[in-house]
Here is the input.
Amino acid sequence: MGRDSESSFSTASLGEIGTSAMICIFCEQKGPSNTVAHIIPESLGGKNSPVGRPGVTCDACNLYFGQKVESKALASFPFIAHRIFSGIPSKKNSMPSMKATIGEIRATGMLGTIEVEPRSEYVDALVEAGDVTQFRILAEVTEPLAVCRMLLKIGLEKLGKHFYEVAAAPRVKAAREFSRRPRRGQAWWFILRCDPHQYVKDLRENTESSIEIVERAGVLFSVMNTSGASTMIPLEESAQPPSSSELPEPEFRIIHAVC
Ligand SMILES: [Zn+2]
Here is the structure.
């Protein structure tokens, strides 16, 4: 994402609030909060990313996000491609796969090595003969709602780690709601920047995923970079998506999600 008019989000010290005084920002209940999880899921290269702050998300909400939101989001584009090329299995140890023009491509568990299940004998013969040197994957966000909700959860946890009072404040209430319990008809959006060549480059260079909160024209955004894909999502409802002339396709896309 462009950085010219962005600034890293910072705020005057709001004073430390102890874990005992915290309630879960998503359900606003004071439930047990013992889950220690990386803010960026491990399967998105977040193994070395910071872990969430205890007390920000309760165990019940963490479980809910894992089962209902993240599993769906991580099994779809753009994140599935990251997992296939990096060879990252699911939590249940199955290898991720996705459809491509030549058939089904599957992770092998080895970085940068994939397995191809050709869709026909003809394609199989071409692959065997070495006549297929490239393939295309369907780069469509098929689960915009799940992806959007996961991105909000990641952003809010990052915000909550450093500025709990802001993450719990009315300013980002709509984002918390959309993430945990979207209302029918409620909509959100994010910007996706994809570069297929970047996948290979990032993997080769072992680029680590990153997450940061920025303030742009007075609005908080969460910016996440994983290999080959960057996302930028507003944490405030008032933000309007940029026009497509500002961020031209196909490099940038504005993805809308409606509940
Ligand atoms: Zn909760």
Remarks:
- The chain has a mean pLDDT of 85.
